[in-house]
# Entry
Amino acid sequence: MGKADADGPGLPDLPPEWGRVVIPDDLAALTDEAEQVRRELRRAADQRRRRPPTGLVIVLIVAVLTTLAGLAAVTWPRAGRTGPGASTPDPAPAQLTGRPLPALDLVDGGQSPVALRGLLPVVVLLVDGCACPEQVAEAATAAPAGVTVVTVAAARPRAAPPGTQVRSLADPAGGLRAFLHLPARQDGVTALLADRTGRITLVVPEVTSIADHHAALSRLAD
# Structure
């Protein structure tokens, strides 16, 4: 049994869209409705717990993509990179063959100028980082008569091996290295051969044994 609240004296008016509201005399009659409401509330709470935090997921995805993009930018090879870390290939020694020996002035132990072209025909051994007396002595022995053997250091002439007729000079301005476009060797010798006309006949960036180039040495005496 119950009565509508709108019919009871002293009760406030309820919104008309609620319809007719009946309040039962025994509250136990509302048990089923209360249980249904609790089920609906539990279901809504479960759905909220299961729903992923959309904002956090988006932030994590953006962070991962940004990190991957940064790694790709660092590790991906870039063509045409220039700067201090970039290396450019040196001209092939064969490209120097047949070119005229540059008209450079070197210096002797007394800092007097010595014209490089005045030493033709010549075997030039660049000994910037290595005195390499064995290789220099071998070149002095292998060179034909009439061919000058010259060692060229960077700052000061290096002493010639004892018992040889090697001419010791220096190239403080670095003109010869600049002409050859070859880096200084710290543990080897670079060799340049030029005939009596001043034409370069051979460039060896790093000499293992001058005897390997016997034919080129012999032609210098022609």
About this structure: Residues 1-6, 77-91 have pLDDT under 50 and may be disordered. Strands lie at 2-4, 22-24, 105-107, 113-115, 122-126, 148-153, 167-170, 190-194, 200-204. Residues 3 and 22 are 5 Å apart (CA to CA). The chain has six helices and nine strands.
